[in-house]
């Protein structure tokens, strides 16, 4: 049996125990994991140093190496995250519906764990702990397949966590790490129907594309975000400028940042020059439609390809539109249904935008950067779903549950 | 552009109108569709006759032809189904959560249509109308791809329905029928990410397998059911016999019927001979484990392959088990997580079974045949989900919705 299949089978067996744990047992285990990480931080940092050295030798950029790097402080922070997950309400075992049928059958709909969750992700080793914590809290087993750049770190982290689980009510086998760094191990995970109940990819566009294109296991797609801010005719200048600037510049590398600014022509003729200067002062490269370039000659011409690109960088498209309808059309054509914003003082236009834009999160007069599990008050998130099935937008703990019907009878048969 | 892609694009455009309809507009349209079906029943029956003749010429069995056949009464019944869907509550536009964040952001979670639903199904033309009604009621557009055996019937039905939609607030393009009978049209639908939001297969195991294996669009898997009835030591004989007999014999061809009877050894030694005679009298073929055959010499030996087969027929496996644990093990190994039943007078065993069996519906002292949207009181069902994502078990109207977050701010930016 391959490593992947073998570990998934162990996880599936463990899931049948996970399924029966009390909230207390799960929370105590999370606290034990947090303590173990802190206790073993030196050996984790030593393993991490191997990844860092190999990365540097392979020419990995310093900014990526910084994301990969673990320090005592960062490990404290990661452990604190586990403690916070322990504090969250347990979404498993809730009675979601209960009803009685005329024939006397009493039916309950109960929240249950999903079972075995496959996580496929890239470099940062903190995802290893975060994902483990969220999956175990919700009574799931998890098969982690992290990026090869963090393999030594992940190996040591999972070793520490599994040793710690051995002293709790949770089976150590509920936590599995796939160590095979080849693409083949990912491909195999994607086809493990019957062993994995869901695969969640987290990472760049090509990782997610590969999972969506090749998985036969159900997938929760996360991540890609071509988000827009539409500044309407009636927008207040300062508010519009602050929201647009925040959406683009506060952290351009993430999925809820803005890629394209849509500006009503009346607002543009009055304010676009001033607004653009603020972006230029922050070293944002501007690409614009023809009408934009009439106002901002320094902008290069934005192609349809540009409008369809998630830059995740200090680059922004600008398009001047005639009205709300044209803005809605552009968002329907180029958006990825992630996060979309209108800045307006016109309540009718705001309501229309919120109603008609088909996205996980639609904003009136606030930055798209708020699409985030912590910002929504969910306390933690496993990712941001960009699909419509099962979960949409920031996924808190309930997104890691399913349901089952318990039916209580006294001999009913169907006529 | 291919037929499939062209029709899906029309459906996607229509979905943006469907999204904004009132409950009244949708209900009135459903009533208009019902009236149109009855009014045009003669031309529908004429088209159906072509399918029937072609089927008969191709050697289709009379029982399959009967499922394909439309009569004035059956069309009345199908129209009545649409009227009943009109009566059901509209699950779209509900505020599912609402909360305010410390920074003043007010967040609402709203139920919304899924968007465009692809349905891939087999012969019976009533599915064409049922699926259309459920999808339109929930504000979705739908692309139907029925079986080629019903092509003429489906073509005429959809023509009638689209003509009727033209006189309502709903866009006719929200209802599309793929007429290309080749496998290629199915394969193309499965990859229409960006146009279809979900694909729901309904039909036999090979149809569903093909969809699950090849779709890149999210899928709701339906259908396969290897269901068990476990008769525990303490079961009352009459109740156990009635439930098991109903689960196997009342309608063996459907997914919630029983394939394997698990019997506690103490119950078996006392009652299995009598129970088996009831099945034999109903012409059920029995296959059993070695211990079963010691009591029922006429049973053939059941292989692991038999235990893993959904017969959908008058064939049943019997296995004698030592205890609840062994029954649970068997169900975990061979079940398809559809519907599972324990018959027992022992409350502890009942609770343990309901807790530990991982299935969409778990029964204590009632037949598995109740796993059905109508029997659950949902009024209609688009299918029975056998996956854990999004929906599990009988899927009523809410299973055809997604959610979005509406966020109301007054200039908030992220710090």
TrEMBL record, chains A, B:
Protein known as: Gamma-glutamyl phosphate reductase
Pfam families with a match to the protein in the record: Aldedh
Gene name per UniProt: proA
GO CC aspect terms: cytoplasm
Main location: cytoplasm
EC id: 1.2.1.41
Sorted UniProt keywords: Amino-acid biosynthesis, Cytoplasm, NADP, Oxidoreductase, Proline biosynthesis
UniProt xrefs under HAMAP family: ProA
Superkingdom of origin: Bacteria
Keyword 4Fe-4S on entry: no
Location of this chain's protein in the cell: Cytoplasm
Pathway(s) annotated for this protein in UniProt: Amino-acid biosynthesis; L-proline biosynthesis; L-glutamate 5-semialdehyde from L-glutamate: step 2/2
Record domain Aldehyde dehydrogenase: where: 7-280
Originating organism: Paenibacillus lycopersici
Known catalytic reactions: L-glutamate 5-semialdehyde + phosphate + NADP(+) = L-glutamyl 5-phosphate + NADPH + H(+)
Record keyword Cytoplasm present: yes
Entry's Gene Ontology BP terms: L-proline biosynthetic process
GO MF entries: glutamate-5-semialdehyde dehydrogenase activity; NADP binding
Enzyme class: oxidoreductase
SUPFAM superfamilies, per database record: ALDH-like (SSF53720)
Family the UniProt entry places it in: Belongs to the gamma-glutamyl phosphate reductase family.
Record's function text: Catalyzes the NADPH-dependent reduction of L-glutamate 5-phosphate into L-glutamate 5-semialdehyde and phosphate. The product spontaneously undergoes cyclization to form 1-pyrroline-5-carboxylate.
């Amino acid at each position: 049996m391959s490593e992947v299949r073998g570990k998934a089978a162990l996880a599936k067996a463990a899931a049948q125990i996970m399924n029966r744990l009390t909230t207390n047992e799960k929370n105590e285990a999370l606290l034990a994991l947090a303590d173990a990480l802190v206790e073993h931080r030196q050996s984790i940092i030593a393993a991490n140093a191997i990844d860092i050295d190999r990365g540097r030798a392979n020419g990995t950029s310093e900014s990526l190496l910084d994301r990969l790097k673990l320090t005592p402080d960062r490990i404290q922070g990661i452990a604190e995250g586990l403690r916070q997950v322990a504090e969250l309400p347990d979404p498993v075992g809730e009675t979601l519906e209960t009803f009685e049928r005329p024939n006397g059958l009493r039916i309950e709909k109960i929240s249950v764990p999903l079972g075995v969750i496959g996580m496929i992700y890239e470099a940062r080793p903190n995802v290893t702990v975060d994902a483990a914590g969220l999956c175990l809290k919700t009574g799931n087993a998890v098969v982690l397949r992290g990026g090869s750049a963090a393999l030594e770190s992940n190996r040591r982290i999972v070793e520490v966590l599994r040793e710690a689980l051995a002293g709790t009510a949770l089976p150590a086998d509920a936590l599995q790490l796939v160590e095979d760094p080849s693409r083949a191990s990912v491909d195999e995970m994607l086809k493990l129907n019957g062993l994995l109940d869901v695969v969640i990819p987290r990472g760049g566009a090509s990782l997610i594309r590969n999972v969506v294109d090749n998985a036969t296991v159900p997938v929760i797609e996360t991540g890609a975000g071509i988000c827009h801010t539409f500044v309407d005719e009636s927008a207040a200048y300062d508010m519009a400028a602050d929201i647009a600037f925040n959406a683009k510049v506060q952290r351009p590398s993430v999925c809820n940042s803005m890629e394209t600014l849509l500006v009503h022509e009346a607002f543009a003729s009055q304010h676009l020059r001033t607004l653009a200067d603020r972006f230029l002062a922050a070293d944002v490269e501007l690409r614009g439609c023809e009408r934009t370039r009439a106002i901002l000659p320094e902008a290069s011409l934005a192609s349809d390809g540009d409008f369809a690109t998630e830059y995740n960088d200090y680059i922004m498209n600008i398009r001047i539109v005639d009205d709300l309808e044209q803005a809605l059309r552009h968002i329907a054509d180029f958006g990825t249904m992630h996060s979309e914003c209108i800045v307006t003082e016109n309540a009718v236009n705001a309501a229309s935008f919120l109603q008609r834009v088909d996205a996980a999160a639609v904003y009136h007069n606030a930055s798209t950067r708020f699409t985030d599990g912590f910002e929504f008050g969910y306390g933690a998130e496993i990712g941001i779903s960009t699909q419509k099935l099962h979960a949409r937008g920031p996924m808190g703990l309930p997104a890691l549950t399913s349901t089952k019907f318990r039916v209580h009878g006294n001999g009913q048969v169907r006529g």
